[in-house]
Design goal:
By secondary structure, the protein is mostly helical. The protein has 5 helices and no strands. It has a single domain, classed as 434 Repressor (Amino-terminal Domain) (Orthogonal Bundle). The protein starts with a helix and ends in a 5-residue tail after the last helix.
Length: 83
């Protein structure tokens, strides 16, 4: 996890299930910050939000490591989009 306190805050919100959907991550952590850390552009983050079926395991794993949460917690944030 990077030194930016917003990663830790977001991690805590995910772990306590205060964040229920992927988009809610961006209430705490700007898209541009996450995109830069993932070495993606913000349009790729928008694609993930709008088309979660295009999500790759690599993306989930990277987000999981950045936010210091299990992959299963990241997947849970997308769950509503697959029902």
């Amino acid at each position: 996890m990077l030194n930016d306190v917003r990663y830790k805050a977001t991690s805590n919100l995910i772990k306590t299930q205060s964040i229920a959907e992927f988009e809610e991550i961006f209430h705490t952590l700007p898209k541009s910050t996450l995109a830069k850390a993932l070495r993606k552009n913000t349009s790729r983050i928008d694609d993930i939000i709008n088309n979660p079926t295009d999500l790759r395991y690599k993306d989930i794993k990277q987000m999981s490591q950045l936010l210091d949460v299990p992959c299963s917690m990241i997947i849970r944030l997308f769950d509503k989009d697959f029902t």
